[in-house]
Amino acid sequence: MLDKYSHLKEQLLECIDDMLAIENIPGCPCEELRKKVHNNVFNLVVLGQFKRGKTSLINALLGAEILPTAVVPLTSIATILKYGEVLRIKVFLTSGAVKEIKPGNLARYVTERGNPRNEKDVREVVITYPSPYLKDGVQIIDTPGVGSVYQHNTDIAYQYIPKSDAALFILSVDQPVSQAELDFLRDVREYSDRIFFLQNKADYVGPEDLDESIAFSAKVIKDAVGFDVRILPLSAKLALEAKLSGSDELLEKSFLPEFEKTLNTFLMEEKGRVLIRSVSNTLLRILSQAILELELEMKSLATPLEELRVKIEAFENKKRAVLSEKHDFDILLDGELNRLVRDVLDEDIEKFKREISVNLLPGLEDLYEKSKGLSGRHLNNVLEEYVVNEVKNAYNNWRAKEDGKLAAAFEAICSRFILKINGTVDELLKFSSELFSIPFDVFKSEELWTVKSGFYYKFKDEPVSLELLTASFTFALPGFITNKIILKNAKKFLLEMIDKQGGRSRFDFTERLGRSKYAFRWDMLQKIEATIEGIASAIEKGLKQKSKGEGEVEERKQELAETAERLNGIRDRLLHIREDLP
Ligand SMILES: Nc1nc2c(ncn2[C@@H]2O[C@H](COP(=O)(O)OP(=O)(O)OP(=O)(O)O)[C@@H](O)[C@H]2O)c(=O)[nH]1
Ligand SMILES: [Mg+2]
Q1: From residue 207, how far is each of 155, 204, 215, 218, 247 by CA, in Å?
Q2: Is the same domain home to 334 and 433?
Q3: pLDDT over threshold 60, residue 436
Q4: Which of 103, 301, 395, 468 is the most buried (most CB within 10 A)?
């Protein structure tokens, strides 16, 4: 599948293991990097109108009929497929509870028929399966069809896009692109660079009609949404048949191989490459620092005592100057974060609140017109249900989008600070190498990818839904109440809910941003301190060794030279990996 990627990934993991085997390489988050490389996933979300063949495509990719497909709108719950040695299915409920189910019972949870309007309160279903397709870390997410009569289905599809690395949007030759599809695409325009379009059910038509239908769909989308799309043909049906029967000829006819190639190239170039580059760059930086420290120790072994004392004094002065910069770092970071909350989050919340008030008030009035024949209490309940559901859905969708936006902004801030901190660290290293006249090239990585920033922004992987505040609309109804008063109260309740939920979302976002900031700050300051510590202790060690006998000094020199050789070896391999990247 992602052959090149898997290969480089294996080599990278070997380098990390070798580094782990060398004792105390200072400041190496080797374990963490190892996990990052090892656990890296490509999230692939499959989207499209109901019945286009999303679920069929997933079964075809896996080469097995794992998920239920049908002629009526079916999938109602997001289902995540990931690699595992055996087929296992776990159902995650909104309450936080998890239960394992038998494969035969899957349809009872993920389909509209088995779980109408999600009465079982399922958040998502996770299936592990031993498919080679999933083995390289691809994770596929099946979503309910957009634009069906079930609004909650469309909402779910929206929520998964920001979390995806690539989105497959499935169209079908037997149906022209619909208004619902266009509306959806317009809403997710900002993610267009990662959306792949597939014209499914290609087996229905001959080659000419196929080309024509693809060209037509592309034009309709371009005209309505404004971005150029490339649409690839596919027959999910033939692809699955081909895989089940092992027929290569049929597989070619299904167009699946061509599409897989395009997708894999994208994943490799956009994602795999970035990961491998960033991790090898981080390792190279760490290695060059470790090598310098070894050389410092060797040099201090060879430097006369008086001269060494003078150098240590000079280094101490430099160290004090660097440490005093820590305070500036705090102030700058706080300033940036406050600006993010004020200029992005607060503005977005206010804008969103205005928008949904304008959108939901007419709906409430319509519903009132339709329901005003009901008894007071009944009318009251109908309006209450509308307000609670609509506000909840609107906020859940908005939060998912805002989440992606804040994560990106936070990462951008982190990147700038990492550059700054790396600058400070480089300066320290440069200073020390000059002090001891050791040739040293600061390892510069032209591209800075923050290996850890995704980790800092902790809420990325947490559930997107936020329970609505428990607020009761059921105000004490007096014995006699007019419909008009009920409507007036319902409107007031709607605006209150919008406001409260906005406040709650703001609190949640700022609180998590704050936590992310502390984690980041702690790590960055650690990095400076670890560098100072590493240099100081290398010189110190040399100083101490000097008081020992000639023989021991020689032995230590030998040891240092051997370690330096091993480190240089790993460095060369990492440089090779970087060169091999497409
Ligand atoms: N002829 C033909 N039929 C297909 C193809 N792909 C899917 N179908 C059929 O189309 C219908 C819908 O397929 P599904 O995979 O359930 O579609 P879906 O997009 O997941 O539908 P929802 O879950 O309801 O949104 C099923 O009857 C499939 O057998 C194809 O490539 N060719
Ligand atoms: Mg489906």
Answers
A1: 35, 10, 12, 17, 21
A2: yes
A3: yes
A4: 395
* Contact between residue 391 and residue 498 where contact means Cβ atoms under 8 Å apart: yes
Domain assignment of residue 199, given as a range: 42-254
Provide the pLDDT confidence category of residue 90 given band limits of 50, 70 and 90.
very high
Residue 61 within a domain: yes
Ligand 1 neighbourhood includes 55 CB (under 6 angstroms)? yes
Q: In this structure, what CATH number is given to the domain that contains residue 191?
A: 3.40.50.300
Report the amino acid identity of residue 374.
L
Residues 214 and 348 in one domain: no
What's the CA gap between 41 and 136, in Å, rounded?
A: 8
What pLDDT score was predicted for residue 465?
Answer: 39
Written in H, E and C, the secondary structure of 140-173 is EEECCCECCCCHHHHHHHHHHCCCCCEEEEEEEC
Q: So what's the pLDDT on residue 16?
A: 92
User: Do the domain assignments include residue 197?
Assistant: yes
| Ligand 1 nearest atom to the CA of residue 144, by list position | 25
Determine, yes or no, domain membership for 472: yes
Flag whether 278 is in a domain: no
How remote is the CA of residue 45 from the centroid of ligand 1, in Å?
16
| Same domain flag for 198 and 100 | yes
Question: What ranges in 436-482 are assigned the alpha helix state H?
Answer: 453-456
Indicate whether 331 and 469 sit together in one domain.
yes
- 375 and 234 in one domain? no
Q: Are residues 197 and 333 in the same domain?
A: no
How many angstroms separate the CA atoms of 64 and 245, rounded?
A: 11
Residue bearing the CA closest to ligand 1, atom 8: 53
Provide the domain count of the chain.
Answer: 2
Which atom of ligand 1 is the closest one to the Cα of 76? 23
Query: Which of the pair, 352 or 7, is modelled with greater confidence?
Result: 352
| pLDDT for 232 | 95
